[in-house]
Design brief:
The complex is a heterodimer of chains A (262) and B (843). Chain A is of the alpha/beta class. Chain A is built from eleven helices and ten strands. Helix content of chain A is 39%, strand content 26%. In chain A, helix 7 packs antiparallel against helix 8 and helix 8 runs parallel beside helix 9. The two termini of chain A are 21 Å apart. Chain B contains 27 helices and 23 strands. Chain B is 58% helix and 15% strand. In chain B, helix 1 runs parallel beside helix 10, helix 8 packs antiparallel against helix 16 and helix 14 packs antiparallel against helix 15. With 843 residues, chain B is an alpha+beta fold. Chain B has a nine-stranded mixed sheet with strand order 19-20-18-21-17-16-22-15-23. In chain B, strands 4, 5, 6, 7, 8, 9, 10 and 11 form an eight-stranded mixed sheet that branches. Classes of the chains: A alpha/beta (262), B alpha+beta (843). At the A-B interface, helix 4 and helix 6 of A face helix 15, helix 24 and helix 27 of B.
Chain lengths: 262, 843
Amino acid sequence: MALLMRTGDLTLDAPAVTPTSRTHAARTVEAVKVYSSGPASVRALDGVSVGFDRGCFTAIMGPSGSGKSTLLHCLAGLDTLTSGRTYVGDVDLGALGDKALTRLRRDRLGFIFQAFNLLPTLTAAENITLPLALAGRRPDPDWYDTVIDVVGLRTRLGHRSAELSGGQQQRVAAARALVSRPEIIFADEPTGSLDSKAGAELLSFMRRAVDVFGQTIVMVTHDPIAASYADRIVFLADGRVVGEMHDPTVARAVDHMKHLGD
Amino acid sequence: MGPLLRGALAHTARLIGTAFAVALAVTLVSGTFVLTDTIDGAFHRAAAPSEGSSDLVVRSTSLFAAQANSLPEREAVPESLLARVTAVPGVHAAWGAIRGYAGLVDRDGSAIAPGGLPSVGSGWAPGDVLESGRAPESPGEVAIDAVTARRNGLVLGDRIRVLFEGTSKEFTIGGFLKAAGDVVAATKAVFDPTTAQQVLGEEGKVDAIPVTASPGVSPEALRMRVNAVLPERYEAVTSAQVAHESEESWTKAVGFLPTALLLFAAVALLVGAFLIFNTFSILVAQRTRELGLLRALGASRAQLTASVLVEALAVGVVGSVVGVLLGFVAAHGLLALLEAIGFELPAASVVFLPRTALAGALCGVLVTIAAAVPAARGATRVSPVRAIGGLADDLGASRRRRLVGGSLAVVLGAGSLGSGLSGGAVSPVVAMAFGVTGIMIGLAVLAPLVARWAARMVGAPLIRVFGEPAFLGRENAMRSPRRTAATAAALMVGIGLVGVVAIVAASMKSSAGRTVQSTLRADFVLASIGITGSSGGVPPAVADRLRSSPAIATVSEIRSGQWGLDGRPQSLLAVDPATVTAMHDVDPQSATAVRNLDDRGVLVRDTTAERYGWTVGDDVSMTFARTGTTRMRLRGTFSTSAVRTDYVISLNAYRANFAQQMDLEVDVALAPGVTPAEGRAEIQKAVVDFPVVQILDRSQVLAAQNAQVDRLLVPVTALLGLSVAIALLGIANTLGLSIHERTRELGLLRAIGMARCQLRSMIRSEAVITACMGSIMGVVVAVFFGWALVTSMRDLGVSELVFPVAQLVGLVALATVAGLLAGVLPARRAASLGILDAIGHDT
């Protein structure tokens, strides 16, 4: 972790193409986010510098209010930093306007939210191809078939979200995130509203996407079991990175979280 | 009640559109009342006897009731009666009053106030009051009303040409009269009594004898005394009675206006009710969870119903108050509208009665509450547990109940409409209004059943052009068919009625055009500008002058008049049997009838003759104001739509039985070899003294007829346009509410890469689809109503059913574009949502 932070410091004013941007799909440099509501202001992110390796499944953990969701939102271009920088590949998100950010999200990022991932008016298939349709593109048929089979949705494609179980809905969202071959998939508590069996299914699918297709995934979770599927866990508390764990297990993650809670 | 009410008030912002719709409808209602009261007030003041005028009037008795828009035609009174009346004890003074047509001509040679109200001339009477100058004393002097003088920049000492029935003459203006006095008139000219008798009446005759009573003699007592000395066929009535009759006749003449305007207001209210119903359904649906929770916590059904109704009451009251205030403004607009279509009203100040505010507000509040009741009941029907879980938008009532109920309403409506149109109903207007309303509501009930399908069809071309956003917009329109259908149905009502008007107008124009083309053989038609009768028509002198011209082969006059059949007023035309068929090429049956018409005969429309059971050779008892009852032999029946009345007599019979001798129209055929230009120049010479006479060739006759249709078409469309505006407001409102409900979806779409412009495009697509659906439904309805209405107007000469395709398509296009505009604001609001706020939004 110490090494990571140092490289982050070093690349602060470096040219766009650096060794780190080749290995990091996304990273933040001294990211600060201050929410001010009235006289009180909250530092949700307090100088976070962290990178996310390509082809790696990273989990971000931390107690409530630790800033993990804010970090994810800023990385994904859904929110803007107060100071510091976020990069997706070589692109500095702070330099992009709304249009470019929208295009970036559409073409280079994928999303899985905790709930309400699907448009109720569309079928599963239409939901999956929605970002491509918005871009005016057609899915690569082979890749589309592969994704559908991997998530096991072949028989549910014509159904609308109201006719799908919670686990199926999240798998549709995962398929949607995957089908446009994004550089990174951001997942915000994707198993938060699922039972353990459906959650396990979704997580194994995400694991497979990383192992088989080399997909980069960044997932926010407070669940040690979910985090144990990741290659690495980044721990956040009070808006700062407070630890890191590679090849985690549930027990170690639980242990670390307990420690954080103190 | 406290927490329930707070829940309601939290949605206040969303109710503004609804309140505005209520306000617009109420505006029309209260505007109509203001207008009606203003008209009543104006006629009341105009008809009221002025100070210093007579207490009694001696006149000849009327032999039949007056037709709606005029006083009964009365025969003149011999001047010799004056002495007899003056001799009655208690009579302070009596004089001969003379009244007739006296049109004024401005300096440019064109007629002043050629349409609308009549131009009246009279002899100087003690009741006349001058504003300045002096009373006319010599044959060359005239006093005119001050308003006309001011409007036309006339000053004392100016020369002015005055048109009479047969002649025109120049006078010097010697005085200006205060207000028009005891008559409702556009212009008034007063001459000295002797001159008046010469130019307006007959030597030795006056139109009436006003009488003033000596001090201490009551008008009623004097009336009995005077009546006792009068010969048969003459009567003395109090001036109050005369004023009352005059006011009544004018009220009758414009009496249909309030009814017509209230019908438009009813349409606006109906459309408003659709919108209110829809808004409250959506609001309640959105609050189902909240209401379910309240139920679970122990709120009673009655409490929940009350909370929704209180909300409706608030909207109704706010909308109504605004509407009543706007109505005052709208009345001025309506007055201008009426003037634009030729209803010139006596100068008047706008009258605002408490009743107007009360009626307008009551309408607005009641309609709002009535429209909210189904929503309020729906709010409490669901079980608390299901409500908390959230409800999918289904079709509400089961499909079958919807199908049966909607069809029933349509069938009942169609039946009522049919009986109204065929004249079978007691009150055709009520039956028709009921029928149209029934059909509209029935269709609105049925619409959700086809809304999905319709949205798919309408949306297909949009998707081809605008791609994914349009696709998403269409899916949104299809997701709650009930909501989309109700929004579209509101537009259907307005567009449907505008379409009907367009179809009827096109059919009328086409029928009139066909009649002119197929029957009119005259090269030129001479007619008076404006509404016939009010400006006296064409003086007979014109026809006489034309006859003496070598350039003209044939001249044929047509006159019109009223007569009584068993005391009921009827209209007739008088023609010259020898020449009329040369000018109007009618069917053989009608032509034969005309050939058989003699000076003691009458022709009757075949359908009318059938109704009365008359056959050729029978005698018809016709009562004329001037000559009393005469038996006229039925010489034939006709069916042509070229004649607008049911009865035709000969010109000679007309001359013998009518006092006023003016031509309604003069048809002219040129001599062989005379070019139209030469002919027009020749005719121009004959009418040079009569600027109220127009010379129309065949295409101008057609144009004049079309202009007459248009003059009604424009204001009617404008009034219906208000309903369309309300419906468009409904689209914006519904969309706004839907967007609120779908905030999270919008956030999701933005998060996964929908650009702001795509989001806007999506919402506008939904608006366009809804508007397009509504306007297409409207046109379908219009085609049906148009067909029904035009078919029933066959007897009125509307023989052809024409669908103005370009206009109807244009209507759909216009409504669609307007729908697009209605979607602009909701779209902008949706696009400005913060993505994270939206995703975290809790509906």
